[in-house]
Design goal:
Blueprint lengths: L31 E6 L7 E6 L2 E4 H5 L6 H9 L6 H4 L3 H15 L5 H8 L2 E3 L3 E4 L7 E5 L2 H11 L15 E4 L5 E3 L2 E4 L2 E4 L8 E4 L3 E2 L2 E7 L18 E8 L2 E2 H7 L13 E3 L4 E2 L7 E2 L17 H6 L1 E2 L2 E7 L1 H5 L5 E7 L7 H9 L10 E3 L14 H4 L7 E4 L5 E4 L7 E8 L7 E11 L8
Parallel strand pairs: 6-22, 8-16, 9-26
Antiparallel strand pairs: 1-2, 1-5, 2-3, 3-4, 6-7, 10-11, 12-15, 13-14, 13-22, 14-16, 14-17, 18-19, 20-21, 20-25, 23-24, 25-26
Helix pairs in contact: 2-4
C-alpha cells in the first residue's frame, strides 16, 4: 500500500471535531460501520466516522456529491451490510475513500459542505450492528509471547511452544453466529471441566472466564476454491481491520483441548468494534517484518519482498476492565495491559496465504482473528490467564477514589474495553474506537 494525499498529516477537515488532537477519526481515517439512529426502527445503513459524527452514506447517495465508481460504492454502502461494497474490490474502496476525503476536506465548496453536513449524525446518538455478514470466522494463534506464556501454564511439563508454531500460522475455525458488536452482553457459559486435583470432571458455570486482545481482519474479495492466494496478492484481499475480543472459558477450553482445538471454550461469544479501518488508512504505520536470524525463517510460500519490507503493523492497544463497582460510581475502567500488534510472529499477508494454501476459498465478509496480541514484557500480556499466571497471582484494579479490587479471572458484571490507535512522528494519529463487552450471570441449565 503506497502513501498518497489522503495520508497528508497537514490535511484538515471543515468539521472542527475531526481536527481535535485526540480524535480517533480525523480526515485521514474514514472507517466504515453500519448504524441507525438510537431507539429508532430505521434500517441500518453504512456510515463513515469523521470526528464525533457519522456520515450517512445512504443519505449522501441521494445527493449529487458523488459520481462514477465512488457513487456506485456509496450506493452499495447504503445497505444494512457492507458485503456488496466489499465485493467491489480495491479500486472501488479507494475511489469512495478518496471522494469522501475531498468532500470533507477544508476548502470544499460551500454548497458541497452544506449538502454533506446535512448527512451527519452525532456518534453518541446512533446504534451500531455487526457491519458484515460473516460466513466464516477463523481465529489464528500468532503471538509467540502469548504462546509461550500460555504453554507454560497449560503444559508445565512440556516445551511451551509446539514444534510447528515457528513454521506456520496456526488457526482453528470459530463460530460466526455468536459474534456481536461493541456493547455486547453475554452470559457466562456453562460447560464441563476438570477441577484442580479432581479425578472426574464436573458440569457448571465457567469459573475462569477470560478475554483475548485481538484484531479482526475483514476479507474483501475472496478466492476461488482450489486457487490459493499468493503472498504478493494477499493484502489486496483484505479490506480492513477492527478490534476483536475472543472471550475464552479457560477451564472448559483446557479440558476439551485434548487432542482437538477450542470448541465450547470459545464459541459462546466474540465481540468486535463497529468500525472497519481500511488498510489504506493504515499505510503510514507499516514496519519491516523481522525474524531473528537464529529462528526458523518462513518457507518460500510464506515469504515475499513486500512482506519483509512492510509486513508488520504498529497498532497500539489498551485493555481496560471496568467492574460493576466502578460503573456504579461513574468511573472508567482500569487499564491492565498495553502492547502493540507489531510484536506478532506472523503478518496479515501470511495469515491469508496460509488460510488458502490448501485450496480453501475465502469469501467476502469472512473474518480472521489475529490471535491474542501479547508483547515481550509481562505488562503487555493480552489475556488474564497470562497476567495472573493462570489465576495464581490476581491483578489489582484501582478505582479513581482509591478503592481496589482483585481479579484472577472475570466476574459477572465486569466489562472489558479494548482500544486501539496508530501514531508515529510526522503522521496523523488514527484510531479504531472501542470494543466493549460485558459478562452477565449464566443461565443455569439443569442436567437431565
Amino acid at each position: 500500500m503506497q502513501l498518497n494525499h489522503t495520508h497528508d498529516p497537514a490535511a484538515r477537515s471543515w468539521l472542527a471535531a475531526a481536527n481535535a488532537a485526540d480524535t480517533d477519526f480525523p480526515l485521514q481515517n474514514l472507517p466504515l460501520a453500519v448504524f441507525r439512529p438510537s431507539a429508532s426502527t430505521e434500517p441500518f445503513r453504512g456510515g463513515v466516522a469523521i470526528g464525533d459524527q457519522v456520515l450517512d452514506l445512504a443519505a449522501l447517495s441521494r445527493t449529487a456529491c458523488l459520481q462514477g465508481l465512488a457513487a456506485q460504492a456509496a450506493g452499495q454502502c447504503s445497505k444494512a451490510l457492507l458485503n456488496d461494497f466489499l465485493a467491489l474490490g480495491p479500486a472501488a474502496w479507494q475511489a469512495l475513500r478518496h471522494a469522501l476525503f475531498a468532500l470533507l476536506q477544508s476548502g470544499a465548496a460551500s454548497a458541497t459542505v452544506a449538502a454533506v453536513r446535512a448527512c451527519l449524525l452525532p456518534q453518541d446518538a446512533v446504534d451500531y450492528a455487526v457491519p458484515i455478514q460473516i460466513g466464516n470466522y477463523t481465529d489464528f494463534y500468532t503471538s509467540i509471547h502469548h504462546a509461550r506464556n500460555v504453554g507454560r501454564i497449560a503444559r508445565p511439563d512440556a516445551p511451551p511452544l509446539t514444534p510447528n508454531f515457528q513454521w506456520l500460522p496456526i488457526a482453528y475455525h470459530g463460530r460466526a453466529s455468536s459474534i456481536g458488536v461493541s456493547g455486547q452482553k453475554f452470559r457466562r457459559p456453562m460447560g464441563q471441566f476438570m477441577p484442580p486435583g479432581a479425578s472426574a470432571p464436573v458440569y457448571g458455570p465457567c469459573g475462569r472466564l477470560d478475554y483475548e486482545l485481538e484484531l479482526g481482519i475483514c476479507i474483501g474479495q475472496g478466492n476461488a476454491l482450489g486457487e490459493p492466494i499468493a503472498m504478493t496478492r494477499a493484502e489486496s484481499h483484505i479490506f480492513g481491520i477492527c478490534l476483536l475480543n475472543d472471550w475464552s472459558a479457560r477451564d472448559i477450553q483446557f479440558w476439551e483441548m485434548a487432542p482437538l482445538g477450542p470448541f465450547l471454550g470459545k464459541n459462546f461469544a466474540t465481540t468486535i468494534s463497529p468500525w472497519l479501518v481500511s488498510l489504506e488508512a493504515l499505510a503510514p504505520f507499516r514496519l519491516p517484518f523481522l525474524r531473528p536470524a537464529d529462528e526458523p525463517q518462513p518457507l518460500a510460500y510464506l515469504d515475499s519482498a513486500d512482506n519483509r519490507a512492510q509486513g508488520a503493523l504498529d497498532v497500539q492497544l489498551d485493555v481496560l476492565i471496568q467492574t460493576p463497582q466502578q460503573r456504579g460510581k461513574g468511573q472508567p475502567g482500569t487499564r491492565v495491559s498495553h502492547t502493540s500488534f507489531r510484536h506478532q510472529y506472523w503478518t496479515l499477508a501470511q495469515m491469508v496465504t496460509q488460510h488458502t494454501v490448501g485450496g480453501c476459498n475465502l469469501q467476502t465478509g469472512d473474518l480472521l482473528g489475529t490471535g491474542t496480541i501479547s508483547g515481550p514484557q509481562a505488562e503487555e500480556a493480552g489475556a488474564m490467564v497470562e497476567l495472573t499466571k493462570g489465576g495464581r497471582e490476581p491483578i489489582t484494579l484501582a478505582h479513581a477514589d482509591g478503592v481496589t479490587e482483585q481479579r484472577a479471572f472475570l466476574q459477572d458484571g465486569d466489562a472489558v474495553i479494548l482500544r486501539g490507535w496508530c501514531e508515529a512522528p510526522g503522521r496523523q494519529r488514527i484510531g479504531f474506537g472501542e470494543c466493549r463487552g460485558e459478562v452477565v450471570p449464566p443461565l443455569i441449565a439443569l442436567e437431565p
